[in-house]
Input
Amino acid sequence: MQCGLTLTAKEVKEKRCRECITNPPHFDETYCLDRYDGRLQPALHQLKYQRRLACAHGLASAWNALLAKGLITARADYLLPVPLSQEKLCARGFNQSWELARRIDCDKHIRKNPHILKRHHHAQHQANENRANRQTAIKDMFYINLQYQAQIESASVIVFDDVMTSGATLNEIARVLKDNGVSRVINWVVLRTLRPSQRSEHV
Output
């Protein structure tokens, strides 16, 4: 599936949700471990907001047990975590996406690298913004480390994130990667939020 949302019966034939058909994202595929309001959410919150790095081991172990085997044949050149700005990284002390990404199992030929993608600092918190506001706020927020620019040309890249909400962040990253010559962008995400109608079904 392109954006990782559970498809409705009418969308199964196209293998994409209505939004992806109407406004195709820059990324090509998305794979998610679980929904955001599922059993893994507390562990992720403890990792991000209470700095409990032990939760990274647990979440990565869940990924390796449930999803890694199905993705082990994924063909890609790089696995890149969604970056934090230098200011946010200093404040938190670690990038949770990298702490998870570096612990997951993947093909030995896929190079994990936390230095290729960079992010400008933005003080405004995005968690409660709607899709349109997220897209506006995130535009031009990411850039490529010039040291690696030539290496990613024509490459296939996996972008790893802890949570996918509206998809605006991952879509902007995919745009930047493809503008810099990347041929294919795949998202690997630990938790994916559901559509409003689907959330009520899983309460």
Notes: The chain is about 35% helix and 20% strand.
